[in-house]
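Researcher: I'm preparing a figure for a lab meeting and need a structural model of a single chain. I don't have an experimental structure, so a prediction will have to do for now. The sequence is pasted below. Please return the structure as tokens so I can convert it later.
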Amino acid sequence: MDATHGDFVLHVNSDTRSRSQRGYDRLAAMYQSIERIAFGSQLQRARVALVDELPAWDRLLLFGDGDGRLLERLCELPRALGEERRLNETQSHPSPRWRITSVDHSAAMLGRQRARVEAIGAIERVEFVQGDARGFVPEANAYDVVVVPFFLDCFGRGELEENLPCWLSGLRVGGVLYHVDFQIPESRWQRPRAKFLLWAMHRFFRWQTGLQNRELVPVDDMLRQCGLQKVSERVGGKGIIASELWRRESASPSVRVTP
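Model: Understood. Here is the structure written out token by token.
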């Protein structure tokens, strides 16, 4: 696995890795267009829905942001770039040394991320890490915010039970997980539509990238077991998309530092 400022060891089947990387590399140039055809602007609205509610941060870890639209927004945040607006906040301010680590499987996606942040003059603030997230072990208790936008739905229950505690081991006590993903609505009128859209989406990505997961796995209980509590939520897309903030209340014994 490759990183701009460092490396870490990747343990994953090479055949699966190469097929997935080729698929996402192939989709990178058209990813935003495909998203708009399927969902309009709903996914991007969900990505940024709670960005302004994030606490002030110095280090942020971002998983699977694809072509980098959320990363760009995070780099533009007044609390990150030090504009005067953040002086009115009661929370502690980030240091001038704020940094973002962005982990993505696709070199082409990371290339698009890099172009976005370079265009706004934030390239020196971002570390890009290429590889399968299942091989990524974050520095323990190092991050104020961990962001997972439409990322956890790529994994099955067994993969999440194994890897989610590891990913969250990088989040300090008092830090926040920003979780944006699909969900099955409570309304029985919306559930058939949601299930069909999720089935079609998983089928498309399985065709293009070899995605193994075939269903949406609820993660609320897993997050609570990792010592997190939900503190904010916004639901959109007629109930199918949720943007959530989860605060780490404790360093749960269930959190492991190796996957």
